[in-house]
Amino acid sequence: MKKGEKTRLELAAIAYRLFITNGYESTSVDEIIKTAGIAKGTFYYHFDSKEQLLEEVIGLMIASGSEKAKAILASDASGPEKIVGIILAYRPVEEELLIRDELNKPENSILHERMNEKLREDIVPILSKVVKEGIKEGVFHCDSIPERIRAILVLSSNLFDEGQFTKKDISVFIDIIEKTLGAKPGTMGFIRKLVG
Amino acid sequence: MKKGEKTRLELAAIAYRLFITNGYESTSVDEIIKTAGIAKGTFYYHFDSKEQLLEEVIGLMIASGSEKAKAILASDASGPEKIVGIILAYRPVEEELLIRDELNKPENSILHERMNEKLREDIVPILSKVVKEGIKEGVFHCDSIPERIRAILVLSSNLFDEGQFTKKDISVFIDIIEKTLGAKPGTMGFIRKLVG
DNA sequence: CCTTTTTTAGACTATCGGTCGGTTTTATTG
DNA sequence: CAATAAAACCGACCGATAGTCTAAAAAAGG
Question: 3-state SS of chain B: helix, strand, coil percent to 5?
Answer without folding.
Answer: 75, 0, 25
